[in-house]
Each structure stands twice: as structure tokens, then as C-alpha cells.
Amino acid sequence: MTKKKTRSAVAGATQFDVVVVGAGFAGLYALYRLRQLGLSVRLFEEGGGVGGTWYWNRYPGARCDTESLQYSYQFSEELQQEWDWSERYATQPEIERYLSHVADRFGLRSDIELDARVERVHYDEVTERWGVAISDGTEIDARFCVMATGCLSSPMTPKIDGLDSFTGPKYHTARWPDTTVDFAGLDVGVLGTGSSAMQVVTILAEEAKHLYVFQRTPNYAVPAWNGPLDPDYVRQFKAHYAENRRKAKQLVSGFLCYYNPKSALDVSQEERDREYEDRWRQGGIGYLGAFADITTNETANRTAADYVHRKIRSIVEDPEVAELLIPNSVIGCKRLCCHAGYYATFNGDHVTLVDAKTNPIERVVPEGVVIAGQTFRIDALVLATGFDAMTGALDKIDIRGKAGTRLKDKWANGPRAYLGVASAGFPNFFIVTGPGSPSVLTNMVPTIEQHVDFIADCIAHMRASNIRSVDPDVAAENAWVAYNDEVAHGTLRYDCASWYLGSNVPGKKPIFMPFVGGLPAYIRKCDEVVAAGYEGFNFTPAS
Ligand code: NAP
């Protein structure tokens, strides 16, 4: 891990043009762009290093499932040419090294404070500035606030009776220690079967004496087929980097993938199977692009799901275990996972899949996990139990806008943000990849760059036009939220309990949070808003 403290370099100043919260992909690029405008910017990061989610999620097997040559910045041609990714899908350490390199290469560290959790962000209507309180007691203020707090950054720990009584070590995948954890010779329990669990399970199965995987809901996974990158392929890709990036932006997901325009129901069974098999062999979440109606038509979806069911049955030797691993839900409703041998892991005699649905976990006791009266004795417990997505990190901060309104209260019946970047009543306050933005449904990095460019351009416009503050119009915000919900209802996204809906967070109102219309539609909308003089945003001129 690259950990460089910068507190001494920035101590002293208390007034800035912009405060940025978070040093992941979004925060680092925001700092870079806003400094380019000649603004004074201070970035606060809770972690001890840069990387955001890629700093915290350092569990064994953590890896991105968007291809490394595309899951990377494009704002600097030099950067994208000079950085060498080693594998098709980058590991957490490699992404963390990359972001650390970006911080160094662009001289960002002098404006970053690490180990600095932002606790309070309050708008002062008299000074029209944001007062920001940091965990070490420092208070500063800024004219603009840019929340780059991430979509999947607030870990969820389930409320299970006795969880704290467990006497062995307990780890959450999203808060993994920065030391090597040795599981050799141990009986280990993993709670959860989402993307994080599938990655950690595959690695822990190689180390643990016995691995118990507690599964409440099975998930769909397609193979990643990760491997070293072919130097010729990289050379070719880099020779046409700008063109590749341009083409990717024209696709709903923001990454290069062939989206078959045909309906799954207009082709023969043979053609369907050929298409699914090709996608399976190719690997990656582009599987859902096999036919145009997989995410919108239940019958079409069933064909894509059935194919994965057959694959699971062909990999997993014990038919009972295979059936338990097979989801009966809509494929692509919950986030499709990528795996590197997850299903085959269950062929090992030392790996047990525990059904935590038929009989939910009763409680955790000092020596293990109790289900239906049976205690599964374990030495270590891994919680791969996900995140309070999209709103969780913002909710943890006491954010108050005009009239002291708390953002959390305003969002109690579901998050409301115009274009996912700003919320009415919170002037000069921007969110990168907020609810209502395509973010988690797309290749995050280009989406982040688009958002940050939009925000930076808006601030530059305000300066050029002598505008004091910007606040979204309530009607425009309501219309955007309603539009997104309408589009989401036209898909199969409401057909399961997912973190996209906040279903994993007790008391969270089920609203499909990310924008479902795809990256090109979102970019088009943003461009139209700008062309119409930032339609839907209210500007207050300087007096
Ligand atoms: P997740 O998909 O939300 O999975 C959490 C798991 O914990 C689920 O299986 C859930 O079961 C289980 N769980 C939660 N509380 C439980 C309880 N009380 N008892 C039993 N099981 C419980 O979280 P995640 O795996 O961390 O992934 C979140 C997202 O992060 C992914 O969807 C993806 O977008 C991103 N991610 C990406 C990668 C990658 O790029 N490869 C890797 C990791 C994460 P239920 O389903 O029954 O609630």
C-alpha cells in the first residue's frame, strides 16, 4: 500500500473555493480538474491512502470486473499510454497503485488530507459558504462542495444476534486490514454470495482447512476468464485509445461490448445457445448484451438465465449443491457477478455451501454460526455483506442545506438529485455519481470523468457569467426522478430485492437509484441542459 501523509503540507489554510470529499477515482479527478480552473481546492479522505473503494476493499481476490484498459482515466492521453496494466481485469493492489501514481504524477497530494473524515457539511445562508468539520476537530469553509464519496463505500454489517460475541477474528470485505491475513489451517465462514463473496471464497478455498459459505440468496455469475494481457493486443488498443473511448461512450454500459440488437425470442434455440456460449467463452458481464430484450422481457430473460443454470449443473458435481447454487430470479436484476472458478470451488470436500434461506442464521455464538439449532464451528468469520449503496456514504455525514434541512431527511422517501449531481436546497453542492446518475450501471471511470467535467464546466460558467450560486430547480429535479423511475419500471429491475433498490438496508425506501437509461442518453441529456443555459438549474447572479 502507498501511504503518504500530506497533512503538514496543507495545515493552516481554512478557506477554500472548493472542498472535495473522497480520494477515489472521482475525488482525484475532481481535484485535478478544479485546480486547473485556478481554484483553491482541499480534498479530505477518511482512509490512510488514496483509492477510495479500492483502498478499503483489499480482501483476497478483490479485482475489478470491467477490463483494465477501459476501467481507467482517459483525461490524459499520456497517462493512458504510459500506464501498463498487467491483466485483463486489474487486481485491487494494481488499481490502488495506479491511483497512487495518478496522485503523484499530477502533483495532487499537496491538496489532499488523509485520515481526515468529514463529519459535518453545513450551508451558511448569510455567508453563502459551506462549513466543513473534519474528524480531527479542524473546521474550514468553502464556496463549493463536491461529494466524491462513492456509490459502494459504506459497508453493511447485518444485525445478527450475537455477532459481537464471536471470539475469532471477524473481517468485512469492505474494511479489510492492510496486513496479510493467514487462513491456513483454519475453519472459515463466509457470509454472503455477492460479487465480493464470490471473489474471496475462491481464494479462501485454497487456504482454509474448511470453508463454510452461508448463502441466503444465490447469485448469477459468468466467468471472467482473467489472464495476462497480450502485449500485441495492448499495443493495438493503445494505438486507437481515443477511438476506443469514443465508441465505448456510445454504448449503454460505457464499455466496449457488442450489443446484439436481436430479440432472444426471434431466434432458434440453436442460435440462442450459440450466442450465450460465445458470451460465456468470452467472459465478463457483456453476457447480458447477448440479446436486446434480456433486461426487459421476462421470457427472453429466462433463456439467458436457463443457460447459466445449465452451466452451473455442468460444473458442480453434487446435484443438490448445484440446485442450491441456482438462482430462480431474473438474471441481471441483481448485479451480475463475474467469477474465477467460484462454482467449481464447491466440488472440494473441504467447502460446504450452507443454506441460510430455508433456515436463516439464528445467531452467532462465540464459537460459530447457528442455523436450525446446528452450530457451524469456525475459527474466523468473513462478512461479504455489501454496502448501503449510493446514499450510505452521504447519510453518514451531517449534511445540511438551506433552512438547516438535512440531506438525509430530504431523501427519507428516496434520494432526489437532478441528473444525479445536485439536490435542490443545497446550493453550490455537487455529488459525483449520485443517485439518478448512470454510475453503477456503467463503466464507472468514464462516467465519473463526465460528471466531474459537467461540474467543473458549470463552475467555470458561473465564474465567467458572474454567478454567485447554483441550485437545481425542484420541478426539474422531480421530473428527473420521476423519469428515471418510469424507465426503471419498463425493465425487470424491480423484480428482485437488490442493493440498487436499497432492499438490503432495513427501512430504506425501495427506489431504483441509478439512472437506467444508459450512458449515451445521460450524456445527451446533460449536453442539452448545458446548451439550454443549464436548464433546470437556478443561478443567483452576484449582486
Ligand atoms: P452484495 O452484492 O450486496 O452481497 C451481499 C451478500 O451478503 C448477499 O449475498 C446477501 O444476501 C448477503 N447477506 C447480507 N446480509 C445477510 C444476512 N443477514 N444473512 C445472510 N446473508 C446476508 O455485496 P457485494 O458482494 O459486496 O457487492 C456489492 C457490489 O459491489 C457488487 O454488486 C458490484 O457492483 C460491486 N463489486 C464489484 C466487484 C467486481 O468488480 N468484481 C467486486 C466486489 C463488489 P441476500 O442477497 O440474500 O441479501
Task: Describe how the helices and strands are arranged.
Layout: H1 7-10, E1 15-21, H2 25-36, E2 41-44, H3 53-56, H4 77-82, H5 92-105, E3 112-113, E4 118-124, E5 129-134, E6 139-147, E7 170-172, E8 187-191, H6 195-207, E9 210-215, E10 221-223, H7 231-239, H8 241-249, H9 269-282, H10 298-315, H11 319-325, E11 337-339, H12 342-345, E12 351-355, E13 361-365, E14 368-371, E15 374-377, E16 380-383, H13 392-395, E17 398-400, H14 407-410, E18 429-431, H15 444-464, E19 467-472, H16 474-489, H17 519-531, E20 537-541
The protein binds NADP nicotinamide-adenine-dinucleotide phosphate (NAP).
Identify the notable features of this structure and list them briefly.
5-stranded parallel β-sheet; disordered N terminus; 17 helices; 543 residues; globular; single chain; 32% helix; alpha/beta; binds NADP nicotinamide-adenine-dinucleotide phosphate; 8-stranded mixed β-sheet
